[in-house]
């Protein structure tokens, strides 16, 4: 099968199932008024190791994006298998001013280097300062209703239980990732491959 992406032939668009699994950016943002928003983004990833930089993409200008524009800070909490259902609850379209934390029965924990809190039950979180927000354009130069947020990591939280021999125990933390449709992937084991010399 081979088809132009503007003319899909399958009953469901396979794009998100092909670009998978994708980490979930569980973003907490704080407005200038002190309102807290917690929402999951599946278009999320790391883009730089030195310095640590992450990005997420938001369809339409949702509260997280608006709050980050106002205050220039956010956190990313790791979503684990144990927190999967609560993560999903935080994606609900609640009225502005309603607490996703309360809706999902989650506790907040203070950050050390930024004002937005993190998910207390998450084994790891990144504290970020805003670098830029860019609206996406298509091949014809038309604006697309998606915005990419870039943030530099200024603080890292790790639950000490998941530090083994000086490394973060990814499999032990049991994170999940977004796939296509309503599907998710679970990281329960990892394997290592040594890169070629000079790579």
UniProtKB/TrEMBL annotation:
<feature type="domain" description="Flavin reductase like">
    <location>
        <begin position="17"/>
        <end position="170"/>
    </location>
</feature>
<dbReference type="InterPro" id="IPR002563">
    <property type="entry name" value="Flavin_Rdtase-like_dom"/>
</dbReference>
<dbReference type="InterPro" id="IPR012349">
    <property type="entry name" value="Split_barrel_FMN-bd"/>
</dbReference>
<dbReference type="GO" id="GO:0016646">
    <property type="term" value="F:oxidoreductase activity, acting on the CH-NH group of donors, NAD or NADP as acceptor"/>
</dbReference>
<dbReference type="Pfam" id="PF01613">
    <property type="entry name" value="Flavin_Reduct"/>
</dbReference>
<dbReference type="GO" id="GO:0010181">
    <property type="term" value="F:FMN binding"/>
</dbReference>
<protein>
    <submittedName>
        <fullName>Flavin reductase family protein</fullName>
    </submittedName>
</protein>
């Amino acid at each position: 099968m081979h088809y132009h992406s503007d003319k899909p032939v399958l009953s469901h668009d396979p794009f998100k199932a092909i670009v998978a699994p994708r980490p979930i950016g569980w973003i907490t943002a704080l407005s200038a008024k002190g309102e807290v928003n917690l929402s999951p983004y599946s278009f999320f990833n790391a883009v730089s190791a030195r310095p640590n930089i992450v990005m997420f993409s938001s369809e339409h200008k949702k509260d997280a994006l608006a709050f980050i524009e106002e205050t220039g800070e956010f956190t990313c909490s790791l979503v684990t298998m144990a927190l999967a259902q609560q993560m999903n609850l935080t994606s609900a379209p609640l009225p502005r001013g309603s607490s996703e934390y309360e809706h999902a029965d989650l506790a907040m924990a203070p950050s050390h280097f930024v004002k937005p809190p993190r998910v207390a039950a998450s084994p790891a979180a990144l504290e970020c300062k805003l670098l830029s927000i860019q609206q996406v354009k298509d091949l014809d130069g038309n604006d697309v209703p998606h915005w990419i947020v870039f943030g530099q990591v200024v603080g890292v939280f790790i639950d000490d239980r998941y530090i083994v021999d000086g490394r973060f125990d990814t499999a032990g933390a049991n994170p999940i990732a977004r796939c296509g449709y309503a599907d998710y992937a679970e990281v329960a084991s990892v394997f290592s491959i040594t890169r070629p010399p000079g790579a």
